[in-house]
């Protein structure tokens, strides 16, 4: 699949130079684009294909009052710069008050811009999310953003390919988030460097699109360039009727083309990894990178569990930062905060699974819990289903759409020492606020932790289904 | 872009693996709309205790490394977020070359777009440089892009690999967009053919 998409998009391959790859869709947000637009201005260049470029504000928008003032002057400045840039360069912008605003990796698919076979880039490492549709999608830096704006192409050395095969059936109560946390734990945070991952196996086929996006989203946490899943009926059904999906007869034609993308049975990969689904459980991270996680029935590791000296040193540093002692059962770790949100886990199915857990229950008195939908459209649909009331009745805050506490660029941050059960993608030191302690886990597990005040095994709970 | 040909400079060690770009430049400093003004915030959470007091236990705060232009780092340096603010911050801090056993892919690209050279050596080689930078005062290293070597005055010599196109761009300080626009006709031709064959999807 990767090869088919790659080959179709090579514009030129001059001798001694990396291939020049055509980009079908360029997503833009406020944080990594202002310097790129300024670069265009300085050089007197224009945006080559504004109609293939789509912008929104997500990283530093507040998630409390809307419409409301953006009290952080520097953040406001950045948002205003994007408005000016989109106007000057004729780029479509879904601004803060648009019903289509949201996290760039949530709205791209939701609006039907993301489609199988496309090459998609964005100045954001979680662009890998879009690979869930069988697109080749990866994050780039600001200079490359400028390059794509000016030329609609990118110079890329052809990455290697790696199959990540999920063997066997997924046990009940184990989610897409657990699958990817397990995979990163097995591969390591640099295990995918230089590679495009392709996720295969029946358990991947069995995931809905929201679950597939969760898996592909975190490909970068294994160091990979991109992650992909071959498109199938689930994909086509999801895309039909989206605002920018092909319409009518054109949709059927498109599906015929998309079907041709599926991975050939005899496809060869440069590397292969196999994950045994039968051994999977809900996972919770204990350290300061996404590869440092443990099964919920397990414990925080002891330093003696690590053979490699560097791994041991890393773990020691992580445990100190996280304020954890080796050997502590995961289910004895008490939390202060819950964050349900981010481009990893703030889509409708994520909110539904969290709501199923909190329905009729209450957040623990020691916990402040926050739900931040991935897009305004997700928020509105969730409200139509009454999920907002379920959360509010349980004492969970119901917020406006944005990246929010995943990276804490807006006012939603942790205080030093606060411990957070988070559905986001990175548990790096200080990611959610200086001194904040992040544990990654699935939406259902985060919701349950919010109710219990500590990590619990969601499989032990009666959810009435 | 400023060309990178050969650099001899003081080497500073940062002996940690998986240093992610969130550590290199924390998110609260990403709101500037310029490419400058990030250096003073590099490694902010590690560099400072409360209220801007430098943390004496952080290696780069050691007086011995003041003015260093070469960073010796652990494996998987620059992993995580795609923020180009990371190389901007490191560059303004004073670094023009980073030597590590491996790098995050996006970070590596971002460095080379900014006249900064990421040098990949074997773990054994980096360990040797790291140990010397930690032990010796005024330890200087030479990174030569033309000969693709790293040397020191102590007999260390290692060769590194780099994409020839990137090497050429760095040596001559060439603008990537300018080089691509030389291929504009090919892009025009591709667009005409590609869009005709795929329609709107």
Describe the protein in words.
- The complex is a heterodimer of chains A (about 475) and B (about 200).
- With about 475 residues, chain A is of the alpha/beta class.
- Chain A is built from 15 helices and 19 strands.
- Chain A has helices spanning about 1-10, 35-45, 75-90, 105-110, 140-150, 175-185, 200-205, 210-215, 235-240, 250-260, 310-320, 350-360, 375-385, 385-395, 445-450; strands at about 10, 20, 25-30, 55, 90-95, 120, 135-140, 155, 160-165, 195-200, 225-230, 270-275, 285, 295, 335-340, 370, 395-400, 420, 435-440.
- In chain A, the strands form 5 sheets. Chain A has a 5-stranded parallel β-sheet with strand order 5-4-3-6-7, covered by helices on one side. A 5-stranded parallel β-sheet of chain A has the order 17-16-15-18-19. Chain A has a 4-stranded parallel β-sheet with strand order 11-10-9-12.
- In chain A, α3 (about 75-90) links the parallel β4 (about 55) and β5.
- In chain A, α6 packs parallel to α8 and α12 (about 350-360) packs parallel to α15.
- The model of chain A has no long low-confidence stretch (mean pLDDT about 95).
- Chain B is an alpha/beta fold.
- Chain B has one domain (about 5-200): Aconitase, domain 4 (Alpha-Beta Barrel).
- Helix content of chain B is about 35%, strand content about 15%.
- Chain B has helices at about 20-25, 45, 85-95, 105-110, 125-135, 165-170, 175-180, 185-200; strands at about 5-15, 70-75, 95-100, 115-120, 140-145, 150, 155-160.
- Chain B has a 7-stranded mixed β-sheet with strand order 4-3-2-1-5-6-7.
- In chain B, β3, α4 (about 105-110) and β4 (about 115-120) form a beta-alpha-beta unit.
- Chain B is globular, with a radius of gyration of 19 Å.
- The model of chain B has no long low-confidence stretch (mean pLDDT about 95).
- At the A-B interface, α2, α3, α5, α10 and α11 of A face α4, α6, α7 and α8 of B.
